Amino acid sequence: MSALPASAATATVTAPPPVLSPIPPEPAAPILTGVTPYAGEASAKEASANTTLSKSALQQQKAERAIEVARKQLGDPYVWGATGPRAFDCSGLVQFAWRKAGVKLPRTTWEMLSAVKKKVSLAHLKPGDLIFTSGGGHVGMYIGHKKVINAPHSGAVVSIDRLKGYWRSNFLTAVRPGV
């Protein structure tokens, strides 16, 4: 048997690091719809407010999409009875824009007036609301900042008007399409 060198005799031996087994992930919490994360602590009123907020946020998202679609039609000609994509009458424009946002509206202004139940005043307009003029024969979409996008009449093109003059003096009602 041979002798170990002096340096080897004083060397310390370290054990290999322990093998760690992976820790399994915690199971995902079940997905509960219409329930707040702390449902045990939240009141029914708070849970209802959270649901309302999500509906409101969805409504706003769809309204923004409808406005975006309508703006892309600026300059397209007015053609009576046209529903797009290259020409529109007033109700055809708002129907087209809201359909692209995922909301079905009836074809004519009169059908829209009777189908959409959420009526709003001029003072409470939100972007995406539909504004109807006297007699219900014309509709435009409120886009915010006191402006309306619409397909006005034969010989004109889809354009943006200020919410004054014609729109104020002939205002019949406004409605908020649902989600």
Automatic annotation (TrEMBL):
SUPFAM superfamilies: Cysteine proteinases (SSF54001). InterPro entries: NLP_P60_dom, Papain-like_cys_pep_sf, Peptidase_C40. Keywords: Hydrolase, Protease, Thiol protease. Coiled coil: none annotated. Residues 15-25 have a biased composition (Pro residues). It comes from the Bacteria. Pfam families: NLPC_P60 (PF00877). Residues 60-178 form the NlpC/P60 domain. This is NlpC/P60 domain-containing protein. PROSITE patterns: NLPC_P60 (PS51935). PANTHER family: MUREIN DD-ENDOPEPTIDASE MEPH-RELATED (PTHR47053:SF1). Belongs to the peptidase C40 family. Residues 1-14 have a biased composition (Low complexity). Residues 1-25 are annotated as: Disordered.
